């Protein structure tokens, strides 16, 4: 096979891995215009259309990219990313899509468009009808329904907060579903905070702020999920502030969700904190036992497998603070019953719960990890959670992230959130780095093992 054919196959693999590792929106924004010039186990030379992309990839995605390349070529080649010049092969064995990189989504669709716009496909299960209300979420639920029925008129903004897996996204999407059904004339924009940030950054880089503003300021309803990711992003906060004011003054509905109440989002500007409190702030708490029983019942109902009362009670007793885990356990048990062709038993439920939450993940908390690592490296806890990038802090912080990923069930985003609001790619980079270093540095590998065992025993 010719060298260029090899390169083409390798590049296909790189693209496939990247597509799996980063959300589609981000892939389109950052990697679509990338082309390989050389791709061998020794050398990887890639081009991108401009310096902005180059720097951003270096800052945010270099770990993911390196990993994708070494998986594809089976080595750890030196990596150079440079700006494409005239004469560079536009398609050096590159199967990547040919269309020009589109950094911004198209402008808003016409008013009559029957569906909301969103960067995520709405989950068809996330309907109000599938949401089980209870004392812990009643207020949030009622507020969401009111806003969906009378956008811009009842509570503005609606701010939902609560910890992970308690139904924030479900309620936001419930609002979208309800409005798309009853108010097809409304322009609804639902997206994650991360997407908002990415659009903004790309718009600035490409001088397309007008298009960005038009898109975000001409909607009837704007829903942003996980707005706490605005923390630490000054310019995006500034832009969001103006978006907020424009929509608010035009009586357009704004709906936000977050993992904590506005005042507790670190580094969120005061003027945003106060605006977020103008309408209604509704908190979602972990469900009480009776609600958990009802939720298990509801989730079981979706499977067509009978769960004995005692299994329902067992699950409601064992999993208290995260409904996603309840759902996971129900799915797992239904799956086991199906595979073994046996009726559901408490023993199966026990196994499912055990698998979901290995003993270590129940006990080890990120706080515990941070304290332990701070002690080991003799640095203040505050520094680990902060933003300083000096090596003496950055490295132990990466160790923390690595341990958090290994010993807890937190997502990459959540882990990033603990360490000065860093995003998931930073966490991925840290995991990658520590893993690599452990391979070549026995001392570090031993330290990591010792810290792990210490933490989970
Ligand atoms: P969050 O966005 O707060 O992390 P999600 O909305 O993703 O949580 O909810 C996690 C899972 O739990 C989803 O599958 C959702 O349908 C389910 N869920 C959460 N709260 C309820 C509820 N009150 N009734 C039924 N399902 C729920
Ligand atoms: Mg969510």
Care to describe what's here?
The protein is globular. The chain is an alpha/beta fold and about 450 residues long. The chain has helices at about 5-20, 25-30, 50-75, 140-150, 170-180, 195-205, 210-215, 235-250, 270-275, 290-300, 310-320, 325-340, 345-355, 360-365, 365-375, 380-385, 390-405, 410-420, 425-440, 440-455; strands at about 35-40, 45-50, 80-85, 115-120, 160, 190, 220-225, 255-260, 280-285. Helix content is about 55%, strand content about 10%. Helix 15 (about 365-375) runs antiparallel to helix 17, helix 17 (about 390-405) packs across helix 20 and helix 19 (about 425-440) crosses helix 20. The N and C termini lie far apart (about 55 Å). Strands 4-6-7-8-5-9 form a six-stranded parallel beta sheet, sandwiched between helices. The protein has a three-stranded mixed beta sheet with strand order 1-2-3. The structure holds adenosine-5'-diphosphate and magnesium ion. Magnesium ion binds near residues 168, 169 and 225. Magnesium ion (MG) binds near residues 168, 169 and 225.
Briefly say what this structure is.
The protein has helices at residues 3-21, 24-31, 51-73, 138-149, 168-182, 193-205, 209-217, 234-249, 270-276, 289-301, 309-318, 323-340, 346-356, 359-363, 366-377, 381-385, 391-407, 412-418, 424-440, 442-456, and strands at residues 35-39, 43-48, 78-83, 117-118, 158-161, 188-192, 221-225, 253-258, 280-283. It has 457 residues and is of the alpha/beta class.
Q: Features of this protein?
A:
20 helices; binds adenosine-5'-diphosphate; 457 residues; binds magnesium ion; 9 strands; six-stranded parallel sheet; 9% strand
């Amino acid at each position: 096979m010719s060298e260029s054919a090899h390169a083409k196959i390798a590049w296909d693999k790189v693209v496939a891995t990247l597509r799996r590792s980063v959300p589609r929106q981000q892939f389109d924004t950052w990697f679509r215009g990338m082309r390989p010039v050389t791709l061998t186990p020794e050398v990887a030379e890639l081009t991108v259309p401009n310096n902005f992309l180059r720097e951003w990839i270096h800052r945010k995605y270099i770990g993911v990219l390196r990993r994708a390349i070494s998986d594809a070529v089976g080595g750890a080649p030196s990596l150079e990313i440079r700006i494409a010049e005239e004469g560079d092969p536009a398609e050096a064995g590159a199967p990547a899509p040919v269309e020009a990189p589109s950094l911004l989504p198209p402008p808003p669709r016409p008013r009559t468009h029957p569906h909301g716009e969103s960067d995520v496909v709405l989950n068809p299960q996330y309907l109000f009808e599938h949401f089980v209300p209870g004392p812990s979420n009643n207020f949030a639920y009622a507020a969401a329904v009111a806003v969906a029925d009378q956008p811009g008129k009842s509570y503005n903004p609606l701010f939902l907060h609560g910890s992970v897996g308690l139904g924030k996204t479900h309620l936001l999407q419930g609002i979208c579903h309800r409005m798309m059904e009853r108010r097809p004339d409304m322009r609804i924009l639902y997206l994650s905070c991360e997407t908002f940030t990415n659009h903004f950054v790309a718009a600035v880089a490409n001088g397309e702020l007008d298009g960005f503003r038009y898109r975000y300021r001409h909607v009837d309803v704007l829903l942003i999920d996980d707005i706490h990711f605005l923390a630490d992003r000054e310019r995006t906060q500034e832009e969001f502030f103006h978006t907020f004011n424009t929509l608010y003054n035009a009586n357009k509905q704004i709906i936000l969700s977050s993992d904590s109440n506005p005042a507790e989002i670190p580094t969120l500007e005061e003027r945003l904190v106060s605006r977020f409190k103008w309408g209604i702030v509704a908190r979602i708490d972990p469900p009480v036992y009776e609600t958990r029983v009802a939720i298990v019942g509801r989730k079981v109902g979706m499977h067509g497998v009978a769960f004995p009362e005692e299994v329902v009670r067992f699950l409601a007793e064992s999993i208290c603070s995260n409904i996603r885990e309840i759902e996971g356990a129900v799915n797992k048990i239904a799956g086991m019953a199906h595979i073994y062709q046996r009726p559901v038993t408490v023993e199966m439920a026990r196994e499912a719960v055990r698998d979901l939450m290995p003993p270590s993940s129940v006990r080890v908390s990120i706080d515990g990890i941070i304290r332990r690592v701070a002690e080991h490296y003799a640095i203040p806890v505050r520094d680990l959670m902060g933003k300083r990038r000096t090596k003496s802090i950055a490295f132990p912080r990466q160790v923390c992230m690595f341990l958090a990923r290994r010993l807890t069930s937190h997502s990459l985003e959540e882990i990033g959130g603990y360490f000065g609001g860093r995003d998931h790619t930073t966490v991925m980079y840290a995991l990658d780095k520590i893993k690599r270093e452990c391979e070549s540095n026995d001392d570090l590998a031993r330290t990591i093992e010792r810290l792990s065992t210490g933490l989970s025993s």
